[in-house]
Every structure is written in structure tokens, then in C-alpha cells.
Amino acid sequence: MMDLEKILKLVRTGDLDVEEAKQQITRDLGSPGTADLGFAQLDLEREKRTGFPEVIFGEGKSTEQLIAIFRRLTESIDRVLATRIDPDKAAAVCAAVEGVSYHEAARALTWFKRPILKVHEGYIAVVCAGTSDLPVAEEAALTAECFGSHVERVYDVGVAGIHRLFRRLDLIRDANAIVVVAGMEGALASVVGGLVSKPIVAVPTSIGYGANLAGISALLSMLNACSPGIAVVNIDNGFGAGYYAGLINKNLSKRA
């Protein structure tokens, strides 16, 4: 696909006539950077529009589909992230596609054409209430790192032992954005929100006893938080939180 600006410059210099330019533009608009695998239509130009390539959601996809998607994406983009990948599928993809790495805690696969760099100034703090919430917290942290952000992990600082949070408060306050991951009653987001001046992305998890209702109680607590400055993503959506925090850090870095 030829760049539109390049086409227009060629028309201006007389190196491309108007009719040829029209045909080129029409052809490019007719196939806007997609790859048809039959079972999937891959968006190869998402990074140009949004700043981050298409991410593979692994649940429900077969091993063969994951391998085919990985192989095609590695031909066109410089980094691939796949979330919600179980160990058996991860092993098969790693064996089939050179350079793929499995991050067990995050349940994610990554591939990089070149070593990923921390390209943005500042950092994101990922604050996790309990050890059982770690898979969601690690999904958020890994996503932000793939975005080019440095991440500081602050884990197991839930409100049942709130003194643990206070010991790490300076680190949390200095972050450009904060991801707070909590299950049970989800109170940690409100507590952190009352102590910092930075944007918070709250992630309710499905971790908790019966009345946690698979994360609904934590979700409602976070949505009803008295502390302002808190955005809430879906239950167990570490990817969405890491992406959102990565966007905040990226845009702050541009202004620095």
C-alpha cells in the first residue's frame, strides 16, 4: 500500500498522472491493511491509527489458529501480544514460532522483532491487593511494558494490612498513572484514590468468597468509589487497564 502523501507528492511533481493516482488510492482504500486468514481478519494497520498493534485474545482460539495468527502478524508488525493463553497452547506456539516467549503469571505470549525499549518517560505503578489477584495484575503490567512504559509492581498491599501500602506510598505517588487491582470488596481503589494526585485505573477481579459474586461486588464498589479520579475497567480486565495506563504515560511523555 502506497502512502497517500507520497501519491500526492508524485502527482504534484508530475511523476504520476491523476488517473493513475485515482486508481492507486481506490485500490488502497479497497483493502485497508487487512490480512484474511479465513477464520480471522487481521488488522495490520491498527498501530498507525491507535499507537498499538492488534492484540490477540487467546480464549476460544485453537492452537492452530493462534499459530497462524502469530505467523502472519510477525510478518507485518514489530511486536505481538496474546492474552489469556493456557500453558499447553503456549508451549505449542513457542515451538512453532521462533522468538515467542510465554509469561506464565500473566498468561500471555509476546514476540518482538527487536528488544522492547522503555520509550516513555516516567512509569506506571501496578498496585495489587492480594497474591490471588496477580494474574490480572501481571496482565496489566505486561501490557503496559509492551506499550513501552516502565512498570513498578507493588503487590500484596490490600486493606486488611493497610500498613503495607503506606510503606510503598512514595513510589505509588510518583507514578504517572496507577493501576489498582483488587478482588473481595474492591476497597483498595478507594483508599489509593484518597492518597494520590494521579489518574487511577481500577480493575475488579473475580477473586473472593460467595458474595463477591465473581467480581461484581468489587466492580460495584469501584464504580461507587467516593474518591474521585478513578476509572474502572471490566472484571479481570488487566489488559484494558494496562493499555489505558500506557496511553496516559505515552501522552504525558510526549509533553515532557
From TrEMBL:
Pfam families: AIRC
Gene Ontology MF annotations: hydrolase activity
Protein name: 1-(5-phosphoribosyl)-5-amino-4-imidazole-carboxylate carboxylase
GO terms classed as biological process: 'de novo' IMP biosynthetic process
Lineage: Bacteria, Bacillati, Bacillota, Bacilli, Bacillales
Residues annotated as domain PurE: 122-254
Stored SMART domains: AIRC
Gene3D superfamilies found in the cross-reference section: 3.40.50.1970
Organism this protein belongs to: Paenibacillus athensensis
